[in-house]
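A.,

Following up on our hallway conversation. Structure tokens first:
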């Protein structure tokens, strides 16, 4: 399956992204640590957001198969950049699952972190360190 994303440079370090199937739009900005103003998500921030969203989506799909409701789950992730070459070096953070889940249920859902297609698409040098609580 393919999805068309159209990117348009609007000027002033701003890019508009349009999701072809839905027409929804988001903007990106040059990050402060790379000479920009950081007014919204940077492209690498979107990578962190994609990873977080993907993990929760895959976990929710797995939880549904066990008749579990993942509502209330959250991912907090921090993106760490490397200077040379400039790229994402590491994602570190925490996945918080609902307290109503047993330790066994949490452990089974933890396995789906690596099943996320975004995580699987990252270069092997990019570390993903996410604790599950």
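Then the amino acids I'd put at each of the 133 positions:
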């Amino acid at each position: 399956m393919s999805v068309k994303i159209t990117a348009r440079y609007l000027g002033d370090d701003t890019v508009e992204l349009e999701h072809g199937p839905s027409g929804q739009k988001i903007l990106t900005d040059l990050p402060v640590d790379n000479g920009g103003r950081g007014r919204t998500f940077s492209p690498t921030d979107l990578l962190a957001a994609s990873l977080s969203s993907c993990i929760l989506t895959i976990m929710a799909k797995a939880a549904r198969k066990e008749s579990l409701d993942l509502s209330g789950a959250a991912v907090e992730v921090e993106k760490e950049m490397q200077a040379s070459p400039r790229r994402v070096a590491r994602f570190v953070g925490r996945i918080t699952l609902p307290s109503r889940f047993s330790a066994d249920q949490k452990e089974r859902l933890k396995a789906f972190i690596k099943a996320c297609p975004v995580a699987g698409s990252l270069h092997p040098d990019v570390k993903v360190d996410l604790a599950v609580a």
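The chain has two domains: 1-41, 42-132. Curious whether your intuition agrees with the design.

B.
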